[in-house]
Amino acid sequence: MTNLVVLGGGESGVGTAVLGKTQGFTVFLSDASKITDAYKSILLQYNIPFEEGGHTESKILAADLVMKSPGIPYTAPIIQKLQQQNTQIISEIEFVATRGDYQTIGITGSNGKTTTTLLTHHLLTTGGLTFGIGGNIGTSYALQVAQNPTMPYVLELSSFQLDGIDTYRPNIAVITNISPDHLDRYEYKYENYVASKFRITMNQGADDYLIYDADDVESCNWLNKNKTLAVLLPFSIKRKIDTGAYLTEDGKSIVVNVGNQAGEIVIGTRDISLEGKHNYKNAMAAVVIAKLRNVDDSLIRSGLKSFKGAEHRLEKVLNVSGVQYINDSKATNVNSVFYALDSMKTPTVWIVGGVDKGNDYSEIFDLVKEKVKAIVCLGANNAKIINAFGSVVKTSKIAEAGNMVDAVKLARGFAEEGEVVLLSPACASFDLFKSYEDRGRQFKDAVHKLQE
């Protein structure tokens, strides 16, 4: 009987442990930190042995196979020891892939992958198709497969999850875009991060599809230098695409044609619930998938109108005294902030900061100069942000906060009627918050308290 060790007692780890147990593996789960009561109850329900608050090396090193949760870096001492003895280390996604022929649509990218995943799932289900959703979003993919092994899934995939695949093969893969992110996990080498994203297509064949941004320099460079067997379906907001998707020259419509019997569909941009050109790209990718799956055009149109968007992604929270507060906590890199600032129509008070991941802020200097009237730095170490933007925004309009309540109060002091307060951090959240979700919810709570 194969000895499976799961490292990490979070969503992906517990889900993998359950799937392993139901498929006959001997399973042991180990977490260096505390495991929440909710996850413990699942482990106990399935009679899966576990430990928390540290690793018993002898048990871990005796594994035939190790599933590493995506948050654990390959530089962790226990991972290094496993690699030295050539123990196979995989991700949750790969573990599921080795357990059966599961049909998936895999979506990755530096920005937009959550919105594209949610919108794709919405269009498919609105179109009457049965699809689950998982990966880097929602309930563990492995746990869902354990409970419903016949359902196809739309998966949001991070670079960390893709690092742990060997055989995983999505029938449809999407790379929304690539920009510098998580460079601290890739030896500060951008090419390593780019290569990680393109692992999504490494096992695809001639019957599979790769949807990508034809305006994205790094994606195009990789495809010019490397080969994939998948059928390429690009999308663009800058030029006409014969097979794929594009934004018309007047900016009023997107046109999608995937070259199959489904035919061409033209959709007015005003009929898309999401705002901003970056969201037109997300919509293009999702509509391409819907057309590949032969969803009726009328149902695609109704799905685009009814979609509500992702929490923590340019989420309009509240208008207080004429000031609109927007939660973009999921913007954990500079490129994502670029899209957010680019969509702002009025003077903006920008709340920024957190754990820097090797950010280069120069690419947004012009946008900050044009759009931002004041900056509130929210992080344990704000020196890099202050140094970067001290010459772009008046120093009298740069403030620091050590918690979310103070950050929102400072932002309110800068903002005037008709303006915007935008939380778009450009950084990871782990200095002051548990996650970007925790950061976003604290922001929303603080904004609502302004009315009290």
Automatic annotation (TrEMBL):
One of its GO terms (biological process) is regulation of cell shape. Pathway: Cell wall biogenesis; peptidoglycan biosynthesis. One of its GO terms (molecular function) is ATP binding. One of its GO terms (cellular component) is cytoplasm. Residues 312-427 form the Mur ligase C-terminal domain. Its main location: cytoplasm. InterPro entries: Mur-like_cat_sf, Mur_ligase_C, Mur_ligase_C_dom_sf, Mur_ligase_cen, MurD. This is UDP-N-acetylmuramoyl-L-alanyl-D-glutamate synthetase.
